Amino acid sequence: MPPAKPSLELLRSLTDEHVLQALICEQRLTRAEIAARTGISKPTVGESVRRLTEAGLLRDTGERTTGRGRIGSYYALAPDLGVALVVGIAPEGVVAEAMDVRGQLVAREHEEVGRPARPEQVAQALRAVAERVLADTGRARLAVVSAADPVDRASGRLVHLPDAPFLVGELSPVEVLASLLAGPVTVDNDVNWAARAERAASGPESLDDFVYLYLGEGLGCAVVADGEVRRGSGGLAGEIAHVLTRGPGGHAVAFTDVFADLRLRQHHSTALDVDRLLSAVDTDGDRADETLAALAEAVCGVISALVAVTDPQLVVVGGAWGTHPAVLQAVSDRAAELPRSVPLRPAQITTQPALSGARAEALRDLRAAISTRRQQPT
Amino acid sequence: MPPAKPSLELLRSLTDEHVLQALICEQRLTRAEIAARTGISKPTVGESVRRLTEAGLLRDTGERTTGRGRIGSYYALAPDLGVALVVGIAPEGVVAEAMDVRGQLVAREHEEVGRPARPEQVAQALRAVAERVLADTGRARLAVVSAADPVDRASGRLVHLPDAPFLVGELSPVEVLASLLAGPVTVDNDVNWAARAERAASGPESLDDFVYLYLGEGLGCAVVADGEVRRGSGGLAGEIAHVLTRGPGGHAVAFTDVFADLRLRQHHSTALDVDRLLSAVDTDGDRADETLAALAEAVCGVISALVAVTDPQLVVVGGAWGTHPAVLQAVSDRAAELPRSVPLRPAQITTQPALSGARAEALRDLRAAISTRRQQPT
DNA sequence: AACTCTAGTCAGGAGTGTTGCCCAAACTGC
DNA sequence: GCAGTTTGGGCAACACTCCTGACTAGAGTT
């Protein structure tokens, strides 16, 4: 992209952006503080604050400085800048939250759905919670959706893959939510959101290339390369059910088929029976050891493929049975023998990892939407 | 990254950038033409041209417009803006080229190296060709290196992986070339460069997510996600020798071991014996069919892993035996039966694909280095 | 010879950011 | 209680960039 054409207007909007950015970071500031933070001169900041206040983006909070010196006025972002909608869709139910530009939740609703979930049911629940959450605030400026199924990148629809369990079902969050929104909808897989949350939680240390392996009722994985989740052309990157691995007898079988062989699937479904798996592993005896060894072998086959293709600095393991201590230990031990070994660790974020990643994205997008709005409409 | 601090100087440098950019695209332009192209007003362009000419970045070519109207002066980039060094390192030998900001080769040298290549030999040859190429131009402003071995991302060193053939050997192009350069060195694997060239050749149609599978003496692959080659944390993404696939008897074996089983490796090496492979495939008879089927099965196991992990829109196949018609056909046929099938096609660029990708990068970097140089030193 | 066309320049003006100075108001110390 | 200090804010002057519109120069065209 060529840099923007130089013009005075560009300069001015850049100044406004800096001022808004400062107030996004700091909540409330006087004009002098903004000037000190941004390095922009006081008169310029004063002018920018005047413009932004007139435009309704900033507000004099009424608070005044105390202490030495002349009293100053604190300015802050206007409280009515709109909210972002954060949505989590899982087979158990639907959650919706409204978040303001400060990152504070202004509303939260959830609704459970009986299993197996029918798509119309989920859609209806989704619509309902979103409406309730936005009842007080009006249309949301954007929405970020986490869904427990593969998501088509272009359309945002939940899609079904062969031999993968369809947990939620055919559903288009974009269409369901369209009328409640005044902006874009971002839909992605829950594992991808969890990976983003994990990256954010890793702090300033750069966790730019890693893999988040999700081992639960479904089998999934998120690939983070150069600091971003990579979704592939259709959004289906990381759908590892069909990766060949080493199954019973040393045969090459698809990852998902290992669980059929081990009789760890739910009836009439390709979804894993997690309870059965965990109890099989927890029972003492040779049988449990065999199962553990088979699982570790299969998982490590997948890990070796992930390592070969993406060269991660770390493999994060999440999901109900992947983080089970015995499983994790068995997998780690086996992984250490791989030709290219990679550190393994359980996910750090365990409570609502996907939703927390989606929240962070929603906040970033909402702030960007506010601070980069060039061209104020008269 | 927060946007640059607004200032008058920023505006001016933006104008200069636009002017330089226009002359990078168009070779020679009059001030009026620059104004028309960039949308900047004539007086401003005139001022910018004056500045840049004084700084030595632009030059009045002496050419004048003909036709109706007042004669105008053509300006062009100064001819002494420096060159980029493009280097290709392969087991057969070393190539070096010097390229100017117009993308024209001003010098080219190559030197063959006997096989097996010893690292010191290669380093010496590299140094020699680079010196010869830069003899007339002085230090290069940057270098782009393509190497036929895995490259460590942080250091740019060629590295050895277990069970992968070390074609060139322990070598640090950065150190070898350091004294000939006045800028950064970019080192990457030849397959990655070939993939970039392939992407560039695909034209305006967006080929943003694909996989370049290289099947030659070595086995490699490049992963392009969201328009960029993804190298992984250490630069070893795509080193697929150890991906599990289906070998003889349906057993799960590492990709590279399939060739040991098929006796298609060179003696005392993990490198493939390409000649033997091709003749085995070309001989008519059941034996050839068996070999073909085994190869197709093994390759498709790897492809299914690549597809699962990266979800490419396309798999490009390159390399000496991968593009052999019989092999390609067998692989395509087998790949169509995969649970998630993906189009396959041979590489479009067949002559020096890696070098051509490296050239494009060198040109882009060189132009960026010139056009974004803020702050002209007095 | 007059007209047309075009590259380049000049003059004036609008808009932006900066420096430096001053003022107002609150606290601090005597 | 009073002077000194400290701090946010405002004002004026200046420097700089870009733009518009008019103008000039010089060659081809009629």
Automatic annotation (TrEMBL), chains A, B:
GO molecular function: kinase activity
Pfam families found in the cross-reference section: HTH_24 (PF13412), ROK (PF00480)
Residue stretches in coiled coil: none
Sorted UniProt keywords: Kinase, Transferase
Keyword Metal-binding: no
Tagged with keyword Membrane: no
InterPro entries: ArsR-like_HTH, ATPase_NBD, ROK, WH-like_DNA-bd_sf, WH_DNA-bd_sf
Entries under CDD domains matching the protein: HTH_ARSR
SUPFAM superfamilies with a match to the protein in the record: Actin-like ATPase domain (SSF53067), Winged helix' DNA-binding domain (SSF46785)
Source organism, top-level taxon: Bacteria
Family of this protein: Belongs to the ROK (NagC/XylR) family.
Protein name per UniProt: Sugar kinase of the NBD/HSP70 family, may contain an N-terminal HTH domain
Species annotation: Geodermatophilus amargosae
